[in-house]
Amino acid sequence: MSALNKVRRALLAFDSTSHGWGSISLRNAVHAIAPPVNPRKQTPSLTSFNILASQIGPFGAIERSTRFLDCIFTSNSSTDIIHLQEVSSDVRQLLLDDSRVRAGFLLTDTEEHSGEFCGTPPRCENMTLLSNKRFGSESASSVPVEDGDQGERLTLRSVYHIDSLHMHRNALGVDVAASDSSLVYRLLNLHFDPFRSRLRRFFQIRTLANVLREPEYSGGGVIAGDFDTIFPEEERFFGEHSLVDAWTALHGSAAAVNRRASWGSQSVGRKRVDRVVMLGLKPHQIELIRLSPIERCASLSDRCGLRCTFTI
Questions:
Q1: 144: Cβ contacts below 8 Å, ≥ 6 apart
Q2: Class of domain 42-139+152-311
Q3: 91-119 confidence digits (pLDDT tens)
Q4: How far apart are CA 221 and CA 85, in angstroms?
Q5: CB within 8 Å of 65: residues ≥ 6 apart
Q6: Contact present, 87 and 127 (Cβ < 8 Å)
Q7: Where are the domains of the chain?
């Protein structure tokens, strides 16, 4: 395994008193929630969506982001974790200004002041949004924990950007602890590069699988985002590292091919773009996110994104 450089990122919460976003202490969050007497299984929901920052026209980045937020907040299905890729500075500001995001989510910060959004063309970042009803922090949550389906809140441990020789582009990590503090899980928000190298892709998948297997993270975790898949061998790469593709596990690979349900349509041919891959966890349900019934590529996951629930 290549050496990994984990660059710490801040986690932001909106303070209704000061009417602004501020970073929270994750060290304090570890001790914020007392373990329940009878811990129970949870089924958090994760949504992954590529903003497509370079896309212009009637379905440009701002329009897609606005439709995505409307879809999330008007859906009958709750979302606990949101993985966003290709977040530009204007989309980031849109998220920070949205009253629904302010009330319901914690946000991973970007390195805007160090030039992440600078350059030609401007660089884009991954961002992860975490429901403050599902994830607990003594200083962060402005919404009380609800009983019933929400269950006990998971405890946030750390946020970081993963940098290694093989990764390229973005891999954003969030570590969370189960309510009984006996298991720790990793949530990796991924945006792979489009290079057509089987060897590089093999090392990328191996690197991420090893990240989920680090000794202190006994719970495993989830890798979700834009895999930019080109080679059919990637299915085998996942299997070699005991990683479970949620769509294949629940719908089967043949069904995905026949219905084009979670496949992209780039010039190199049909390919799996958005994926949710797991280690040590069980996928419960997965579906496409449809922003609009009239969107031109609404049947393809590189335009729609995915929503997946899984059991912890």
A1: none
A2: alpha beta
A3: 999 999 999 999 999 999 866 543 444 34
A4: 19
A5: 51, 91, 94, 95
A6: yes
A7: 42-139+152-311
